[in-house]
User: Fold this.
Amino acid sequence: MARSGETRAHPRLRVRVAVGGSARAQVATGLSVLDHLLSLLAEYGDFELSLEVEPGSAADEVTAAGRALGEAFADRIRREGARGHGSAAVPADEALAHVALEASASPLVVSNADLSAAHVAGLGTDVVRDFLQELAEGAGLTLHVRLIEGSDPQHVLAAIFKALGVALAQACRPRSRREEHG
Assistant:
């Protein structure tokens, strides 16, 4: 059963997330590489994702998208009976990334992936760090990103966003009986 989220309306964006949806994404951030990465997140997390950001500077678009997406996931991750945590290791060609996350009162991102000097489709990939930070703050998450292997920046980003989608899906899922009764 799909759980639909309210559409968040900010002057610069609109976002809607359905958990357990059809793994479809309609994303228009103005940055084709970010659109692709968010489509991967939706596909691997089985989310129905709709996100539209008014054009602006690349940095503004990335941070607005990250914050809005985080806010859209916050209620699902923190709802009664939700696991509130998730973890996944997912490959993309030669790259392998692990993402672990947990609902937290002190959101933060810890990562060993340094892509500050890389560019993918004209986008400085260091802005992805800003996206993840805004996502973590918007959703209230402790987010750990570990790059296990990878040299191609595009494959590294794909692996991170695939793993992030799976981990978010786990966090939104209901707790199992074993988890509830310890």
